[in-house]
Design brief:
Order of helices and strands: EHEHHEHEHEHHEHEHEHH
Mean pLDDT: 91
Radius of gyration: 17 Å
Strand order of the largest sheet: 1-2-3-4-5-6-7-8
Oligomer: single chain
Distance between the termini: 11 Å
Number of helices: 11
CATH superfamily: Aldolase class I
Largest sheet: 8 strands, parallel, barrel
Structural class: alpha/beta
Number of strands: 8
Length: 242
């Protein structure tokens, strides 16, 4: 068996799995949280729930259930507006917030985050392929673009980045030891489909490449037994970190 990974970041193993609570309404979200029980300690609530009228009610409820919350809103606006929005979020009790990797946006968010909230800059979405960059007139490889955006975000005060597990190893080598790497696009080894995700990895590969947290949605949500699916990933994480 491979040796457990040593990490300078003090993260509880069970908090390394972040479940993407991608459902359309408050009742569905609460029902799914109840089904998952103690198999998930950290939840991501994103744009689907943000377009409902219950987003912050759910955020408060999750915190009341002793869960950690990742607000995946990918803020992108002029710096003054981002500053105001982040100051509001910083009072919510959320642990993570995503912002666009644009330098001005990332810097404004980092300056307004307060002591608890951690700002994660989005580098390149896991649905993006190399051809998509070319279509946008970007003459860099995905890895080059991810590294450029990540270095810039951390340099202006962001706590870490969102990036595919395919870029986790070069990011870990390039970023300061304390920078967080949060990896979406995770598919267990037995997953039947990657769906709209193009740059995907397994949980073990993500962590052994340097990720601190993984974000998993559909492989848990759509499983016949979500509790069992999440528990299996938790067991895999325990096997990696010991």
């Amino acid at each position: 068996m491979a040796a457990a990974i040593e990490t300078p970041r003090r993260i509880a193993n069970r908090e390394r799995l972040i479940f993407a609570l991608d459902v359309p309404d408050l009742k569905g979200a609460k029902d799914l949280v109840a089904r998952l029980g103690d198999s998930v300690a950290f939840y991501k609530i994103g744009l689907e729930l943000a377009t409902s009228r219950h987003y912050f009610e759910l955020l408060d409820w999750l915190i009341g259930q002793d869960k950690k919350v990742f607000t995946d809103l990918k803020l992108y606006d002029i710096p003054a507006t981002v500053t105001a929005a982040v100051r509001q979020l910083a009072r919510s009790g959320a642990s993570f917030l995503t912002v666009n990797g644009d330098r001005g946006v990332a810097e404004a968010a980092a300056q307004a985050k307060g002591e608890r909230l951690k700002i994660l800059a989005v580098t390149v979405l896991t649905s993006v392929a190399q051809a998509d960059l070319a279509d946008s007139g970007i003459a860099l490889t995905i890895e080059e673009l991810v590294l450029r955006r990540a270095r810039q975000a951390v340099a202006v005060g962001c706590d870490g980045v969102i990036a595919s597990g395919l870029e986790a190893a070069p990011l870990r080598a390039a970023l300061p030891a304390g920078a967080l790497i949060v990896t979406p696009g995770i598919r267990p080894a037995d997953a039947a489909s990657t769906q709209d995700q193009r740059r995907v990895v397994t949980p073990t590969l993500a962590f052994r490449s340097g990720a601190d947290h993984i974000v998993v949605g559909r492989p848990i949500r759509d499983a016949a037994d979500p509790y069992r699916a999440a528990s299996a990933i938790q067991e895999e994480i325990a096997g990696v970190f010991g």
